[in-house]
Design goal:
The structure holds two protein chains of two kinds. By secondary structure, chain A is mostly helical. Chain A has 14 helices and no strands. Chain A is globular, with a radius of gyration of 25 Å. Chain B folds into two domains: 225 residues, 3-Layer(aba) Sandwich (Rossmann fold); 134 residues, Nucleic acid-binding proteins (OB fold (Dihydrolipoamide Acetyltransferase, E2P)). Chain B starts with a strand and ends in a 10-residue tail after the last strand. Classes of the chains: A mainly alpha, B alpha+beta.
Chain lengths: 293, 382
């Protein structure tokens, strides 16, 4: 009905708007994809090729095998310590993602479904921590880890990351868990289920979308983190993460583009694949903080 | 089986959701809590379940004081309005959930699931998820989840209200059949008086947190304790209107407008109206107890304003017209509707009264109800 009644000028405006939106998307895509593609192509080119011609020239003659090489990756991963850094990053990231999610999910359940005194007050107190900039906590935390003889250890960075993530994780998960139908929890109570059983058998499976969303979000953040890693792991070369390794490489071999490109790609590969595989959760995760339910 | 003694629930200090509720439910009995929304029936049910704390009073289930007990300790199963099936579990796991939680043997669980699935007729659907079931099937799974544990009692909170009208009638019979088959004491909350009438062994009519009447469906229908119960039970509801009470010699007489009704002195034998002369009362007449007569009748000069056909019967709406004037400024019970319109149930064989015509009505004085105008209480002698 609206289509038939639509005025010509309105229709033109609508089409114009659509074109503008598409154009903007195309521009953004090109802006983002071009350097990424350049980096990707360069990471497989020889040092000589990079120094003599632009990466786009390879696209004109993609089947010329002489210009392609895997040496850059081999050198970066073994010689420059990127392989070890990659393993370290996984060792840092996985527990640093799982730990706060678990704690925040328990807390979100308690804040939603267990009655206790000052519940709203404590919840507000936790959520308020979102406004505290993490830089503010660096010095006291460093001193604390040193005092506990845990500085530059994995445990220290797990707990640090978990702590920084906790308020936002709690906010997102509580919004979701509190919006679950009360009857489901009551039905489980009627069946004599205790809080742990209700959490693991009913709430956790139902909150998985929110948990996955936050997990993906937080995973990417930690993987790409440089600052926290530098501050809390910087003193120990054995536990360097990829971002630190990349920075070191940049300082030491700033002109060796072939190595930097390969190292950059090693750094990017996990976040890019995680994002592509789980992007629907990613979008939902960002919305979950803003839109209830 | 279930006993409530002076049970009271207060919210936020001064809102009385349930006031001083006392009633006893026998072993195997099916009791319907009925009343308009906000009458406290669901709160009462949730207190029996343990999902709501009791402000004061005592709840006993199977001779055990459970007033302070956790829901899980009461051995009571509940069926929720929206079924509350676990969406991530299959029908089988939904049914087995309670037994798994309570660590029954795997073989015993499997056996009970099969038995219950048969009872509710969902053997074929055990591996489906709730989202793949129709409303009626979900309802049955919810019933099955209650049945599987052989609990002390079932509590049902408007379990049929999410179904369409036709399915609701069907499930009404189904729920009652299942309940009778297993013989488990049941408390059933509904706002639908038809459901309460058809399903309940006994009915508890509630209003504003206060129990109005507790009794068998026929008793509640035939001898409503007050004007509210009279107006709530039955569809169309009982006709209620004001009348004056005077004395003709020693015989009490009802005065409606200019007309008087004597009933051969039956008023004083049937009703407690000894000191009522000069006062007003509320008159109640069931739509089916009134006979329309074109000429002679107990009340005359009523005007037919609408006749609805329901197929099997007709409902005539008859107004008092200008002939009978009421004083609307009168205070008292607010259970009397503003429009003085009588609804009269006519069988198909009765000739349809002409619209706009003047008619008279008749009724058997045995079917007359009188209520106190202030308290709304029935004036009938017991």
């Amino acid at each position: 009905m609206a289509d038939i009644a639509e005025l010509p000028s309105k229709r033109a405006r609508r089409i114009g708007g659509t074109i503008a939106v598409r154009l903007a998307i195309i521009v953004l895509c090109v802006l983002w994809i071009t350097p990424t593609l350049g980096l990707f192509v360069s990471s497989f080119r020889t040092e000589f090729a990079i120094q003599t011609s632009g990466w786009w020239t390879t696209l004109l003659d993609p089947f010329n095998r002489a210009q392609w090489t895997l040496d850059n990756y081999a050198r970066v991963i073994t010689g420059e310590g990127m392989g070890q850094a990659f393993v370290n990053t996984i060792a840092v990231t996985v527990p640093a993602v799982v730990f706060p999610i678990l704690v925040a999910a328990y807390a979100a359940y308690a804040f939603s479904w267990i009655e206790f005194r000052f519940r709203e007050f404590f919840f507000a107190l936790f959520i308020m921590m979102i406004v505290v900039p993490l830089q503010l906590a660096f010095i006291p935390l460093l001193r604390a880890w040193t005092a506990l003889d845990l500085s530059n250890s994995l445990i220290a960075i797990w707990i640090t990351h978990a702590g920084f993530a906790m308020p936002i994780a709690l906010l997102i998960l509580r919004n979701f868990i509190a919006a679950l139908p009360a009857e489901l929890i009551e039905a489980a109570k009627m069946e004599n289920a205790n809080h742990f059983q209700i959490f693991w058998r009913v709430v956790f499976p139902l909150a998985l979308p929110a948990i996955a969303a936050f997990g993906v979000f937080h995973f990417l953040w930690i993987w790409n983190d440089f600052l926290v890693a530098l501050v809390f792991l910087g003193g120990n070369p054995d536990v360097q993460v990829v971002t630190m390794n990349l920075q070191k490489l940049l300082a030491a071999r700033g002109s060796d583009w072939h190595l930097l490109a390969a190292a950059a790609f090693v750094t990017m590969i996990v976040p890019v694949s995680v994002f592509l595989a789980l992007q629907r959760y990613f979008v939902r995760g960002m919305l979950a903080g803003a839109v209830k339910g | 089986m279930i006993k409530l003694e002076n049970v009271t629930k207060t919210f936020a200090g001064d809102i009385h959701a349930v006031s001083d509720l006392s009633l006893e439910i026998g072993e195997g009995e099916f009791v319907a809590f009925v009343g308009p929304s906000g009458c406290g029936k669901t709160t009462a049910l949730r207190m029996i379940a343990g999902l709501e704390t009791v402000t004061s009073g005592r709840i006993t289930v199977a001779n055990r004081d459970v007033t302070q007990a956790d829901p899980g300790e009461r051995d009571i199963a509940m069926v929720f309005q929206n079924y509350a099936l676990y969406p991530h579990m299959t029908v089988r796991n939904n049914l087995a959930f309670g037994m798994k939680i309570n660590r029954f043997a795997r073989s015993e669980i499997a056996q009970r699931v099969d038995e219950v699935a048969k009872l509710i007729g969902l053997e074929e659907y055990l591996d489906r998820r709730p989202s793949q079931l129709s409303g009626g099937q979900r309802q049955r799974v919810a019933m099955g989840r209650a049945l599987i544990r052989n609990p002390n009692a079932f509590l049902m909170d408007e379990p049929l209200s999410n179904l369409d009208a036709k399915l609701r009638v069907h499930m009404r019979v189904e729920v009652r059949r299942l309940q009778q088959e297993v013989g488990t004491t049941t408390v059933y909350v509904t706002h639908d008086q038809v459901e309460a009438m058809t399903m309940g062994d006994r009915i508890a009519v509630m209003r504003g947190g206060v129990l109005q009447q507790y009794g068998r469906p026929d008793d509640i229908y035939d001898r409503p304790a007050n004007a509210f119960v009279a107006g709530f039970m039955g569809a169309p509801p009982m006709n209620l209107f004001r009348a004056g009470l005077t004395q003709d010699g020693t015989t009490p007489v009802l005065v409606v407008g200019e007309q008087t009704m004597k009933f051969d002195g039956r008023l004083s034998t049937d009703f407690n109206i000894a000191n009522g002369a000069g006062k007003q009362v509320i008159v109640g007449l069931r739509p089916e107890d009134i006979v329309v007569d074109a000429a002679a009748g107990t009340l005359k000069d009523l005007r037919v304003s609408l006749v609805e056909s329901l197929g099997a019967e007709r409902i005539a709406h008859v107004g008092f017209g200008d002939a009978i004037k009421f004083d609307r400024t009168e205070t008292g019970s607010n259970d009397i509707p503003d429009d003085m319109m009588l609804q009269i149930r006519l069988s198909r064989s009765t000739p349809v009264p002409e619209l706009g015509s003047n008619v008279a009505i008749q009724f058997d004085p045995a079917n007359l109800h009188l209520f106190d105008v202030e308290s709304g209480k029935s004036l009938r002698r017991d």
